[in-house]
């Protein structure tokens, strides 16, 4: 007797299942590639917070619609507003049959959210089965990030210290230690790209090492305000406060953006008071001192400055050199000459982020083209970064400074005299002109009495060689560089 009408045979059913399984595997493979590309474009932190939680849903071939799921209304709305176009384009490139990408809340998450809220407000010493990993994960799913939102590469071990940031680093390590900190909150003040965000992540990682059950809240002040307004509009302020005050360590970056919205500032003020009263730890970071924050209520300013304000000054030449050298281990066995490191450390001085970015770009270009890393390659490939960082030092200024240093007359820079007492300062000035200005060899030669470009090249190479062999010459050049760059 044949199979019942309307029901597929076992063979056809298995074939259909196999086809569906293969389609699911293909979708997953495409998503892995897309997600990896977005991680490179958006950065590790943004990817971990918003892209990584996305789960693949079903794909309708008839309409060409692909569903992507996120755990909460907030995260779904955030990704929809900021990344929908990018996700749609990426999927259309990967699969031409995808016509539309639909971002929505995972249908099985709403019931789970109620459990997560209770977990976030549970006592710190709770020993029920929803232990450390479960609590941290569920809080992360609610939109707040915990250990999941911490960049694994930003640890104390990867943070290079120097005279300009040692106080902030030591204070951060103390905040993350098992001992109760002597001060709270800790306020890290630094201009853009000097490492304050790195220290925030490092504190989170180190604190989890000594307290694996710790519940951590890391976000920017801007995101805090966005989530506050979202909770206010959805009438979820009780849940918002319960989650926020259930954390053991509060890490808030870019606090300078906590402007306007008096109600959000007031909620942060009450949260600080509540956490401090319970002995919790708080760390804030900003690009200016608390007293210089604009549009922030005075009571909140007093709370932010009541602990320790640790100032991180721009990295000096020694620290910049150390940071570059610490990064070189990642690129072994590729060799980066010492003069290139010295050149980058001296020239890219606005912030550490640009410094490391310049090194990465230079090495990536060398690896992809098969060229050796050299001073000439650095000058050719990093023109945008170098021009943005260089103070407009002129050749006239260099000649004047060198003449004062060696006590020779300014006219000797253009004279034909070949006495050693004149030639060596002239060669040093040519070398500094090449290092500190964007001028070409012929342009430099014209400023030194119309000399040929080959004369300038010889002078630059000679001084480079002397700096390696002669400590006095190296000391002279270093002293002149400090004068000209100050």
Structure in words:
This protein has 486 residues and is α/β, with parallel strands linked by helices. It folds into four domains: 17-108, DnaA, N-terminal domain (GMP Synthetase, Chain A, domain 3); 134-312, Rossmann fold (3-Layer(aba) Sandwich), CATH 3.40.50.300; 317-389, Helicase, Ruva Protein, domain 3 (Orthogonal Bundle), CATH 1.10.8; 395-485, Chromosomal Replication Initiator Protein Dnaa, Chain: A (Orthogonal Bundle). Helix content is 57%, strand content 9%. It contains 21 helices and eight strands. It has helices spanning 10-42, 44-51, 73-94, 110-120, 132-141, 166-176, 196-210, 221-233, 237-244, 262-277, 298-304, 317-327, 338-347, 352-369, 375-381, 383-389, 395-406, 420-436, 441-447, 453-469, 471-485; strands at residues 55-60, 65-70, 100-105, 186-190, 216-220, 249-253, 281-286, 308-312. It has a five-stranded parallel beta sheet with strand order 5-6-7-4-8, with helices on both faces. A three-stranded mixed beta sheet has the order 1-2-3. Strand 2 (65-70), helix 3 (73-94) and strand 3 form a beta-alpha-beta unit. Helix 18 packs across helix 20 and helix 19 (441-447) crosses helix 20. It starts with 9 loop residues before the first helix and ends with a helix. The model is unreliable at 1-13 and 109-148 (pLDDT under 50).
């Amino acid at each position: 007797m044949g199979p019942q009408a309307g029901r597929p045979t076992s063979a056809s059913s298995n074939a259909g299942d196999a086809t569906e399984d293969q389609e699911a595997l293909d979708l997953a493979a495409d998503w892995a590639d897309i997600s990896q590309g977005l991680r490179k474009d958006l950065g590790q932190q943004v990817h971990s917070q918003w892209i990584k939680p996305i789960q693949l849903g079903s794909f309708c071939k008839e309409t060409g619609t692909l569903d992507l799921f996120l755990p909460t209304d907030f995260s779904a709305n955030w990704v929809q507003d900021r990344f929908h176009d990018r996700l749609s384009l990426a999927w259309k490139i990967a699969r031409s049959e995808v016509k539309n990408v639909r971002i929505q809340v995972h249908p099985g998450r709403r019931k789970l959210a109620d459990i997560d809220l209770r977990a976030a407000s549970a006592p710190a010493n709770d020993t029920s089965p929803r232990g450390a990993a479960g609590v941290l994960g569920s809080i992360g799913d609610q939109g707040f990030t915990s250990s999941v939102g911490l960049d694994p590469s930003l640890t104390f071990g990867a943070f290079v210290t120097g005279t300009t940031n040692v106080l902030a680093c030591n204070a951060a390590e103390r905040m993350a230690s098992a001992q109760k900190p002597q001060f709270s909150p800790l306020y890290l003040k630094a201009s853009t790209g000097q490492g304050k965000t790195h220290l925030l992540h490092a504190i989170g990682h180190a604190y989890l090492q000594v307290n694996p059950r710790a519940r951590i809240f890391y976000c920017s002040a801007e995101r805090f305000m966005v989530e506050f307004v979202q909770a206010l509009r959805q009438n979820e302020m009780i849940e918002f406060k319960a989650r926020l005050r259930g954390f053991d360590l509060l890490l808030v970056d870019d606090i300078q953006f906590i402007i306007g919205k008096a109600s959000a500032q007031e909620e942060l003020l009450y949260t600080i008071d509540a956490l401090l009263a319970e002995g919790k730890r708080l760390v804030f970071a900003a690009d200016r001192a608390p007293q210089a924050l604009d549009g922030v209520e005075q009571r909140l300013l007093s709370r932010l400055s009541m602990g320790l304000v640790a100032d991180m000054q721009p990295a000096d030449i020694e620290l910049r050199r150390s940071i570059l050298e610490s990064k070189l281990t990642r690129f072994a066995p590729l060799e980066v000459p010492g003069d290139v490191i010295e050149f980058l450390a001296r020239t890219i001085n606005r912030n550490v982020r640009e410094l490391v970015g310049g090194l990465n770009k230079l090495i990536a270009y060398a690896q992809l083209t098969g060229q050796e890393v050299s001073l000439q390659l650095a000058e050719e490939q990093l023109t945008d970064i170098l021009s943005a960082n260089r103070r407009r030092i002129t050749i006239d200024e260099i000649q004047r400074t060198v003449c004062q240093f060696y006590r020779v007359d300014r006219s000797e820079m253009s004279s034909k005299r070949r006495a050693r007492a004149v030639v060596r300062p002239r060669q040093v000035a040519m070398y500094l002109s090449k290092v500190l200005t964007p001028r070409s060899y012929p342009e430099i030669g014209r400023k030194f009495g119309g000399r040929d470009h080959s004369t300038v090249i010889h002078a630059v190479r000679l001084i480079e060689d002397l700096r390696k062999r002669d400590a006095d010459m190296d000391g002279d050049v270093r002293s002149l560089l400090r004068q000209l760059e100050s």
